[in-house]
């Protein structure tokens, strides 16, 4: 499932969620939300029409300790973003 994970200390990550065990949540093809300044708050990132208003930095695969997660939001546009990112990498 494509998801936005909000963690302690202000970390916001987006990726394909795969839980490896009860203590770790794995995100594949993850990106961190570096900045946004659109007045919509973090909930806006889940909507496809606002995705270009957020700056994302690709991180690859990451593991997050479950105890550090505050909440999660389903992300409806992640597949489209990853396809565009993959095509740009292949074109270079």
Structural commentary:
The chain has 92 residues and is α+β, with helices and mostly antiparallel strands. It has a single domain (2-91), classed as SH3 type barrels, CATH 2.30.30.100. The chain has one helix at 78-91; strands at 2-7, 12-19, 24-36, 54-65, 69-74. A five-stranded antiparallel beta sheet has the order 4-3-2-1-5, covered by helices on one side. Strand 2 and strand 3 form a beta hairpin. The longest helix has 14 residues, at 78-91. The N and C termini lie far apart (29 Å). The model has no long low-confidence stretch (mean pLDDT 81).
Radius of gyration: 13 Å
Major pleated sheet: 5 strands, antiparallel
In total, the number of domains comes to 1
Give the strand order, joined by hyphens, for the main sheet: 4-3-2-1-5
> DSSP strand (E) fraction?
over 45%
- Calculate the mean pLDDT score and round it: 81
Say what the CATH topology is.
SH3 type barrels
Shape: globular
* Span between termini: 29 Å
Order of helices and strands: EEEEEH
- Using the 3D structure, state the CATH architecture: Roll
In the CATH scheme, the class would be Mainly Beta
Number of helices: 1
